[in-house]
Amino acid sequence: MFQSQDILYIVLAFCALWITAFMCWLIWQVAMILKNVNDTMTEAREKMAKIEEAITAIRGKFEKATVGISFLADGIRRVVEYALDRRDAVVEKKEKKSKKIADADEL
Question: Which pLDDT belongs to residue 92?
């Protein structure tokens, strides 16, 4: 029948088979984990690209808005300056008239 050495070789072969199966399963699991990490990183890159595009678009809109607002502010400043100059001119004109009237009354 079987000698003790034959039984030892059969047990060792069976253990080698199980170790090989375990190593294959372990390599498969590591490969699946790495695939999931790769997929996650790809999705993260895509989302970061979308976020960057959104921020760039918002920045562009703000730049356009600030240019428009600066033109608007410059226009308002000019209108206010014109109104103040006009008011000063009217005040000076009234002062000249009142001074002329006062000079005419003195004579």
Answer: 81
